[in-house]
Request: fold
Amino acid sequence: MIVEDQTVVTLRYELRDSHDKGELMEIMNAKYPFQFLFGSGKLLPAFEENILGLKEGDEFEFVLKCDEAYGPPEEQNVLNIPKKAFYIEGTLPEGMLEIGQQLTVKDDQGQDHAGRVLEYDDAFVRMDFNHFMAGKDLHFKGAVLQIRKATIDEIIRKHHIPQS
Reply:
């Protein structure tokens, strides 16, 4: 069996910034593998292109350039939010606004957005809502652990497969 549409693929890999000696950003090993429905539209298209046609046991290594991955950081995704928006029952929770802190913020429509605190003052908190991998080339190295045909239910749901 090969990696193709409507297959459930299980991988192990290391993801590094830019090249094989870059900063380790994520690791999925045989004990905690990455499992997904191929062709569901949930993964980066260039990632899927690089593993299409592989078989169980095949190893892979490739780099997704920034434009194939999460793109460059965009200035419109860096926002100044009134500091009072972070208060809970009139109090700012201790340690909430540390530089580099990852926070989830709700917008006007109740949607959650993950962002990182860049700086703050008495009035505003400057946050970066770009994907944390924006602006990076992504180096993947790993292997295909398992491939199986997706069930009808998995194809209908089109989302990541729960780990068993």
The CA atoms of residues 45 and 135 lie 17 Å apart. The chain has two domains: 7-70+133-157, 75-128. The domain at 75-128 is CATH 2.40.10.330 (Thrombin, subunit H).
